[in-house]
Design a protein that fits this description.
- Helix content is 60%, strand content 5%.
- The protein is mainly alpha-helical.
- It has a domain of 117 residues: Winged helix-like DNA-binding domain superfamily/Winged helix DNA-binding domain (Arc Repressor Mutant, subunit A, Orthogonal Bundle).
- The chain has a two-stranded antiparallel sheet with strand order 1-2.
- A hairpin with a 5-residue loop joins strand 1 and strand 2.
């Protein structure tokens, strides 16, 4: 189980990550995310961001079982314009987050890769070409569960009632995981 110190450290890392995300702004974060999959030119970046927005809107429309915190786009959300993408890419080159190759494609620098990993690396699977597999820790999972529970606690009861059975199933699954743990002084 996660003790209070580990939980506090995990929450502090999450707070620092959110602060960094706020500092970076939405478009910069989207560009970092898009370039994690490999080099792209400006048009490819705009196309990919638009595709991500559309996919996230579709997830939102599918219902409450999906992640509402990923609201990057709304109906009719527009593709980022060249007037926003290219100045941001220029700024990101100056900040040593991306570099522009001879082929005109942008790629994350080591600093950009490190920044992307710190901002959202533990939310995604896959491999990065220079860093190996991303590590998703137990602390990360518990921090995410805690965040989702906080979200559910803030929702009006009448919106939760139709999902009671699913919540009970999740509670039962988590209880079974806890039951497999050896007895320890931390365990209640």
């Amino acid at each position: 189980m996660m003790n209070d110190k580990n939980f506090s450290e995990a929450m502090q890392r999450r707070i620092e990550m959110v602060s960094k995300m706020q500092k970076f702004g939405g478009l910069r974060i989207m560009i970092l995310h898009v370039l994690e999959d490999g080099p792209k030119n400006g048009v490819e970046i705009m196309d990919t961001i638009q595709k991500h927005r559309e996919e996230r809107y579709k997830m939102k429309e599918r219902g409450p079982r999906h992640h509402h915190h990923h609201r990057m786009g709304m109906p009719g959300s527009k593709r980022p314009s060249p007037g926003s993408i290219y100045p941001m890419l220029k700024k990101m080159v100056e900040e040593d987050l991306v570099e522009k190759g001879e082929d005109g494609r942008y790629n994350l620098t080591a600093n950009g890769q490190d920044t992307a990993q710190k901002i959202f690396g533990h939310f995604q699977g896959g491999h990065r070409k220079d860093k190996g597999p991303r590590v998703f820790t137990v602390e990360d999972a518990l921090t995410q569960i805690d965040s989702y529970i906080s979200y559910l606690e803030d929702i009006k009861i009448e919106k939760l009632v139709p999902h009671e059975e699913q919540m009970r199933i999740l509670l039962e699954r988590l209880s079974k995981v806890i039951e497999t743990l050896p007895e320890s002084p931390v365990k209640n």
